[in-house]
Amino acid sequence: ARRAVLSAATGPGATADGHPVPLLANIGGPRDLDSALANGAEGVGLYRTEFLFLDRETAPSASEQEEAYRAVFEAFPQGRVVVRTLDSGADKPLAFLPPPEEEPNPALGERGLRMFRRYPEIMTAQLGALARAAAGVSAEVQVMAPMVATVEEAEWFADACRTAGLDGAGVMIEVPSAALRAADLIRVAGFFSIGTNDLTQYALAADRQVSAVAGLQDPWHPAVLDLIATAASAASAAGKGCGVCGEAAADPVLACVLVGMGITSLSMGAPALPWVRAALSRHTLAQCRDAAAAARSVTSARAAKAAAYAELPGLE
Ligand code: PEP
Ligand code: MG
Predict the structure, then answer these.
(1) Residue 207 has what pLDDT?
(2) What is the SS3 assignment for the chain?
(3) Residue 161 annotated as catalytic
(4) Which ligand is nearest the CA of 82, by number?
């Protein structure tokens, strides 16, 4: 039966009534491209570039970076590739930099875009390599920053991207302040991509790395759904895209709920793509909206999930 569902859904992502939802892959580098292509990814929604930088004694050279980026861009001549700039921190330190300050809460520390404040030359080098790799390829290349908390940070990043020749820089929505003030942020961002892993961690104040609080790391929580809906509405009002690239996008039922909240693309680990494609193809946009409203009308993650399932027959 599973095979029948899968074979029924091929081609670009869309709801049963034809509302398009591009389905993209999360990748860590060129070695993940085969799986992305085999599972029908329409592009890349999250290229985690930190794998180029971690576990090495010297920074990757400009040409090494360019080559890794171009290999990914060329795999999707018709598609979109969203590159996230380096997302490292005290828990993922860079061996070629002086050891960072000991942090009691690395998730709340100098990570993501914040690290570029101390080392702007690493950002400039990465953006330069991205701009050169993007020149002359037909993929639509977009760049976004992780861990943006304020409008000033988003402006600073967008300016640096423009200077490098990269327009329309995006902002990841992974910090509650960014979601709550999404209407301010979208004025300076080309698009949003919601990182539901971190957004959940920060919304529920439950460290992703601490197993004792793993039960709280649940993107079905209505508080997380509300933050996502706020960001999606702000982007939609501005006529800009708002994707999801956290693990939430890989849950076929939650994927329908996200689409019902106005999310415009979904990016996930490649093996989940066929399941999400199948789930979307079996439900209309109206059903997805009803499922989203139902999930947000209750008071717990568990009840939200049950409410959404009830609106989306055939996914139990
Ligand atoms: C996220 O936080 O949801 C995300 C996509 O980024 P990462 O998992 O790499 O932190
Ligand atoms: Mg994240």
Answers:
(1) 96
(2) CHHHHHHHCCCCCECCCCCECCEEEEECCHHHHHHHHHCCCCEEEEEEHHHHCCCCCCCCCHHHHHHHHHHHHHHCCCCEEEEECCCCECCECCCCCCCCCCCCCHHHCCCCHHHHHHCHHHHHHHHHHHHHHHCCCCCEEEEEECCCCCHHHHHHHHHHHHHHCCCCCEEEECCHHHHHCHHHHCCCCCCEEECHHHHHHHHCCCCCCCHHHHHHCCCCCHHHHHHHHHHHHHHHHCCCCEEECCHHHHCHHHHHHHHHCCCCEEEEEHHHHHHHHHHHHCCCHHHHHHHHHHHHCCCCHHHHHHHHHHHCCCCC
(3) no
(4) 1
